[in-house]
Design goal:
The structure is a homodimer. By secondary structure, chain A is mainly β. Chain A contains two helices and ten strands, in the order H-E-E-H-E-E-E-E-E-E-E-E.
Chain lengths: 177, 177
């Protein structure tokens, strides 16, 4: 699996089941959501604007993409004000066939621009470690079939190695709209 | 990570938060449970008995262990009849430093003796694929710190590549009893 193939396979509309585990409180969260992933061209204004405003990592930009999500929490399914949604632009900067940096306009753990380090494991699993101001997010994404992918995350404190929460998302491609 | 180190690091008492995702029905399941893992010696009767009754895989047995779990479902927390518990004996048969077979007295997807194929990914993640009569289980386990590990599973039908359900467990070591 290389980066271009991974982005190509990720492109599309996904229905997600996501579980969050708050380890200290032993609390579960359940979220149903949709994710849309679209490839962008390198000269798309969203891409050139993000590169212009960011601390550009080493490597050359490759296979940028746009991600949009809308989630409905289990707590108040009838209260539309609690539906969380958002979008971000992501630009990989490969440094070799298996590794590189990922610049994103909006972070996962914190809503700020962020640069993470990605690498592919021996079976093609994509892993991403992103430092934020207060925390470090470790994500991994792997395809279990062409149309099903899994995504896990671990959030730990920047100081020390305390693990705050984990999450797991099962994502099924929506084949016809 | 080699097999012996993995079993050694897994030994102990773990408090688990487990989420199950039924993909076709978009249903969540939440389970709190305890797992205890203990190494066994190669001449323990539980080990020799299992080897005697099983179709022995290639390789030599190494680092056998015992696993015991008790789970409390979210559906009926006050009904003790619904607490699921069980135990099994697991015997790895390494074929090289990174791969081998795993014989277990009780299966994960089905309650029968089973032999799976394990391998370690480049970052030390343990992966295990076990064929059962009706299904194939793909599990992966990785340590995010010395005392926190994550475990995911994907269950698919033997015929075709339909993914039936996934699960994710966050496991925190109980340090003092």
């Amino acid at each position: 699996m290389n980066l271009e193939a991974f982005v190509l396979q990720s492109e599309g509309d996904w229905r997600c089941m996501r579980s969050g585990h708050s380890l200290a409180f032993r609390q579960f969260e359940e979220v149903l959501s949709h994710i849309t992933i679209k490839r962008l061209s390198l000269d798309d204004p969203q891409v050139t604007d993000l590169i212009a405003t960011a601390d550009e990592p080493e490597g050359k930009p490759c296979s940028p993409f746009f991600m949009e999500w809308s989630a409905e929490s289990d707590w108040e399914p009838d209260d539309p004000s609690l539906v969380s949604q958002g979008s971000c632009v992501l630009i990989p900067f490969p440094t070799n066939a298996d590794e590189g940096f990922l610049l994103r306009s909006v972070g996962y753990a914190e809503a700020e621009q962020a640069i993470g380090k990605y690498s592919f494991l021996s079976d093609g699993t994509f892993t991403l470690t992103t430092p934020y101001g207060q925390s470090i997010a470790e994500e991994r994404i792997w395809f279990v079939s062409e149309h099903v992918r899994c995504r896990s995350s671990v959030l730990r404190t920047s100081e020390g190695s305390g693990v705050l929460q984990t999450s797991f998302s099962s994502e099924v491609r929506r084949l016809s709209l």
